[in-house]
Specification:
Pathway: Amino-acid biosynthesis; L-histidine biosynthesis; L-histidine from 5-phospho-alpha-D-ribose 1-diphosphate: step 1/9. It is found in: Cytoplasm. Belongs to the ATP phosphoribosyltransferase family. Short subfamily. Its EC number is 2.4.2.17. The protein is of the alpha/beta class and about 210 residues long. The model has no long low-confidence stretch (mean pLDDT about 95). Bound molecules: adenosine-5'-triphosphate and 1-O-pyrophosphono-5-O-phosphono-alpha-D-ribofuranose. Adenosine-5'-triphosphate binds next to helix 1, helix 2 and helix 3.
Length: about 210
């Protein structure tokens, strides 16, 4: 029997679009795939095993080789420099990273405080702009920080813009466009080239039209 291909899927926002894409690529995923609370799902007909992980952890599973491939947001890839190959832009879960803050906020002479879930992306961005800032790492509800006086600005994901709007914040700078990517463990890429190439080819066809 051929080696099973293990795919790390992100739970949450990306899951539905990613599962939809795999189905369009003609992978026969069982109906319980979408509803199950199981974290490991085998699809023997396809010789595939899916593991379900937090979006930020998908890269860790792939880097350690316990998953051969995975689906991860470009934001996660930019934040942590990991030893994985990024082989395909899936063009799903589109959003962007931006700097935001309160409108008409006063400029301080000292380094402004920037709250974010992406400290590395934010640091590099402000370094490139030649701006000195103090980064404050948060894990969620980033928009709260300027409202409560924890930070002067935030670096966060924007999709519809609703969260900024409902909290009276404005977008100040656009950092970069984000989509989800197919990532591959370098050793798996050599050892399981056949099923991986096939996956890339079938997904590419879906992206292409
Ligand atoms: N509006 C959005 N907000 C956040 N992430 C988005 C958005 N739209 C698309 N994404 C993509 O989805 C991924 C995050 O998915 P999700 O929101 O399910 O997880 P999370 O917020 O990191 O996890 P959790 O909130 O469960 O800790 C991001 O890495 C990004 O690539
Ligand atoms: O532009 P929008 O469509 O409003 O989407 C952007 C919001 O969604 C994300 O938060 P999420 O819902 O993941 O919650 P979190 O703050 O707990 O990360 C992100 O961090 C923004 O807050």
């Amino acid at each position: 029997m051929k080696d099973v291909l293990t795919i790390a899927m992100p739970k949450g926002r990306i899951f539905e679009e990613a599962a939809d894409m795999l189905r369009k690529a003609d992978y026969q995923l069982p109906p319980e795939f979408d509803e199950s609370r199981k974290l490991i799902l085998d699809v023997p007909n396809e010789n595939i095993r899916f593991i379900l992980a937090k979006p930020m952890d998908v890269v860790t599973y792939v880097e350690h080789g316990v998953a051969d491939v995975g689906i991860a947001g470009k934001d996660v890839m930019l934040e942590e420099d990991r030893d994985v190959y990024e082989v395909l832009d899936l063009k799903i879960s589109e959003c962007y990273l931006a700097v935001a803050g309160l409108p008409n906020a006063k400029l301080t002479d000292v380094a402004p405080k920037v709250a974010t879930k992406y400290p590395n992306v934010a640091s590099s961005y402000f370094r490139e702009q030649g701006e000195q800032v103090e980064i404050i790492k948060l894990n969620g509800s980033i928009e709260l920080a300027p409202l409560i006086g924890l930070a002067d600005r935030i670096v966060d994901i924007v999709s519809t813009g609703r969260t900024l709007k409902e909290n009276g914040l404005v977008e100040l700078e656009h950092i970069c466009h984000i989509t989800s990517r197919l990532i591959v463990n370098p050793v798996s890429y050599r050892m399981k080239d056949e099923p991986i190439d096939e996956l890339v080819e079938r997904l590419s066809k879906v992206i292409g039209g």
